[in-house]
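Problem 3 from the worked examples.
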Amino acid sequence: MSSGSDNASGSLGRRLRAARETAFVGREEELAAFNAALYGGGCSVLYVHGPGGIGKSALLRRFAHEAALAGRPVSMVDGSMVGSIVDGRTAEPSAAAFEAEAGPVLRDADAVLLVDDFERIQGLEGWLRERFLPRLPMGALVVIAGRYPPDLRWRADPGWAGALEVLPLRGLRAGDARALMDSSGTPAESREPLLAFAGGHPLALLLGAAVAVKDGGVGRRWTPDQGVVATLLDHLVGELPSAAHRRALEICAHAYTTTEDLLRAVLPQDAGTLFRWLRRLPFVESNSLGLFPHGVVREVLEADLRWRDPEGYAVMHDRIHAHLADRVRTASDADVPGAVAALLHLHRDNAAPAGFHGRHDEGEFREEALREEDVGTLLRVATAAEGAASAARAAFWAERRSAAFRLYRRAETGEPVAFSAWLRLAEPDEEELTADPLVARAWAHARATTPLRAGEHVAVGRQWVLPPYRGNSPVTDLIQWRVIGNCLRSERMAWSYIEMRHPDPAWVERLRRRYGMRDISERPWPGDDAYALFAHDWRAVPVRAWLERMSRLLVAGPAGGPSAATAELAVLSRAEFAEAVRKALRQVSRPDALAASPLTRTRLIAERAGQNPATALGDLLRQAIDDLREDPRAVKFHRALSVTFLHGAPTQELAAERLGLPFTTYRRHLTAGLERVCADLWHRELYGTGAPAYRPDL
């Protein structure tokens, strides 16, 4: 037990006390609750809880100061010091040891007892509630501060309803955080980078400020050194029960939100037990999407794992990425934006929008399908956002393709703030080209670059956003997540085109470098504002390749992102493809010649990851010929192709002789076999190896 009045003699005690008082900022609500209790207008027990380093001890020191000013005797008990001494070591805390320290509060109605580090003696909580605290004289005040919230039995007991007040202690407000940095002498240019890293976490801010003062400032985006990381981990996380618990916490730090099924996908053993453990941690919060740690805890866990075990970090990232990518593909339509947000969170990097990976606010905006009665609202929003001409285009498409539209409202007020449309177009339509110059521009680009093949389509994304909500905002995030979800879930999409009005240069660069999209903008149409039009060929960089390039960004850094030299796939017409197959068959025994084939850069070979492209192409051609034996009607085609290309007949005449066929019959079989192989491989090129097998009518 220590007295609330500092008995230290000399200047050091006074200097420490003065420095702590100067560094104390904010906490007006907590101080108001304490003073209400102190002067008899509040509760008898205050229960303060929050994660390590959040400022509980500093708040208790201020409470002690306020109590001393009120003339109240103050006692303080440190949970880490409570316990009897056995063989020179502190044993488990006991009720007797606690009462020996805290006893004065039971004898004086004016006494104030402050209990710090209560998590160290959490086992005494039931005894404290049932046995110790009911013996307090009326007027005495007890403050308990620990990492964990009180047991629910406090709230379930009607007797404690007016006697207990629970104060969750959170990070400092932005203004208070800046005041804390001011008091520590942080250079002005370092304050925003430190705030971006630490948020309102006092310990993280003070450690960062100490580094900034020592080094004369920090960079635009500050990354803590390993000394700071280790200190924060000790205070925020502490010792963990096992390696599995540490891995579960690292998964929680890496993912946007963590559910039990995600944990099971990455860490199958004891996923349920580990999830229940995570949700009880004082620095882990929850919402409707799952669990997530406080921002600074996330940052230091990520930094520590990447430094300590880069290979383990990459393996964890890949497993989470695969699970979340699958979720995007299988989610219900309403859940697509949230699934995409979780996936893109893994791709965050230095270019991520401020606050993106810390944004867990739910329900600020909601997305709805367009209903007939919303069309008038669409026209009003489109007119206010982009003018009458753009509103006319919105009306045109709403009449033709109402299902393509989404409406975005403020959840609190129902105010409509934006619309988006995802126009899926299979072929040019003169009326559409005339009505919408943007769609005409998209079709012109597609036809001039790599035209559509049978069964393919283009998609054009349009949006109308009221001016106050443009730029980096939650509603534009929601629209972008919907667009990306559409791209990742579409079948047979050749090109996607995304329009951006009044483009933010940072987003233009982000779409180009981060998402691998081409800016094909031209001068604005007369009377229209500036716009940008971004295109992506999903045949050249299919979904899987796009996701892999994105995934490398976090693990490998900027050099591993979409700007790295990664060959795009060749997009061949059917005639070009068939000619390439015929040529490759003639060279099937020459790997050096196959290496130059454009087929090595097609989807066919890209899906055979891990093989040398020339070897993979040779294997694929042999397998395509061999597969013909499975169809009794095509066995004769198989024999003609096999003798000609696989068994080295020097001329077609000799091949016909070996088969015992008239030359004209052999030629007919060979031609039909080539057509069959070309058609089979073309089918795989268009639909992927997982599609149903090609079944021709012979």
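Problem 4, a separate protein:
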Amino acid sequence: MATTLPKVDVVTVGLGWTGGIVAAECSKAELKVVGLERGEKRGTEDYLKIHDEYRYAVRYELMQNLSKETITIRNHRKMPALPMRQLGSFLLGEGLGGSGTHWNGHCWRFLPYDFQIKTMTDEKYGPNKLSKDYLLQDWGVTYDELEPYFYKYEQMMGVSGDDINPFWGKRAQPFPTPPMKKTPILSKFEGATKKLGYTPFMLPSANLSEPYTNPDGEAINACQYCGFCERFGCEYGAKTAPEITVIPTATKTGNFEMRFRANVVEVLKSGNKVTGVRYLDTLSGEEFIQPAEIVVLTSYVMNNAKLLMVSNIGEQYNPDTGKGTLGKNYCYQILPGATGYFEEQMNTFMGAGALGMTIDDFNGDNFDHSDLDFIHGGSISLTQTGSRPIETNPIQRDTPTWGAEFKKNSIYNYTRTLGIGTQGASMPHKENFLSLDSKYKDAYGIPLLQMTYNFTDQDRALHKYITEISANIMKEMGAKTVESRTPITDYDIVGYQTTHNTGGTIMGGSPDNSVVNNYLQHWDAENLFVIGAGNFAHNGGYNPTGTVAALAYRSVEGIIKYSKSGGSLV
């Protein structure tokens, strides 16, 4: 029998970036907040020996345990969905900080085009640019409305950058800290792209270029360029993460309590409101009910969607009828690019997760799509993230994958290989969606989330176009051999691609086309808020974290307002 705990003002489900932002802002506003995290507590002091590539990058120490909960995946509805038994295509974070602990630190603002993609595409190219199978829609909020919240998150993180990109949205304030070091490798990319007529700029980074103290008084150190960012915590406290910023800010107020090993299995609802959540202690198996005036789902994309589904809140999307919104518009990302093999040695082993240069000439609608069979594009970057020894074995395609020749080429190319990669946009398709699996359950008896997803003709056309541009840049950089990324066919979970999953709990201007309004308040339960990349109506040409954080800051402003007066915020 479940133990009912004392009621609080706000309960968050998950303690990553969104949960941390909600906790910090609500607790500063004198609301009593409980943060439930199903993973463990952790922090900078736990990362003093973090440079263990096998433990963290191969065995995924900081990631979700798939033996307890996973998802099932299929390419189409006639295909049986099978459980993902080991992490591959994407990496689900778990524990304090969530994916905000093991991220690379790319800090982008989505383009103005992204937020009004349906309106702007129709105005320029007509309503039939893509077929009706693509479910394009505006987000219900504009870039200009979000701009102050973008800057609020940049201030909190201390983002390092330089406002010289002519293609992104107008900024009201400069970046809090200057850009990171422009290394010889990045200068090589800069020179080549300028010769080709493009406009390179330093990637906005949460690996800070200098020590910084944010407006809440939290100190973030300067990056040491050690090359251990993605899949790792930072032992220097130099990669901005929730556990060194928003979580300490919330804790200092005295209004915030964290509970770990607390796996939320249901959101409790009565009428047009939720009353709290039910969770299990993953060690003892004890069951608890946490009543709250306001419930905020701040877990990962897939977990937020699953919780709504198992709690029967909202109408499940039906691809046959087009009705329902929960699970709709799941999107991934497309990764065009090219690899270059050089003669000269470079310090590829040094770097940082967000040390890079980018061009936006082929992102969003920054180039003419009139004669192209796709829309949008992607940010094209060369990043110097550090080549770690276990998983870095760069060899040309005609090299055997074992034996003496493999070893010789791998060692030779280790400091002579560079890659250009693109965060390619993904458009929603009526056959790509999330639902509950009817067969498989997790360790707690809850149905697994089911992903139905495959690459589309739009994806394949975008990938081919941007890959050719990437290869041309690499040739201009002077590579002796250039290998373009192979064309994409069907989506496969084998091999890491990106953890930039979006959609399923999308935002919009009407309950007819979205799960939440533009304050991320659920249409069917006014005191329930759902925050994360699941709110994206499509996936853009950047990493999603910055846009997620901006939406979180705007949402928490609405949460505080709701706590005082109630009702719908739109």
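Solution to problem 4. Residues 211 and 387 are 25 Å apart (CA to CA). The chain has a mean pLDDT of 97.
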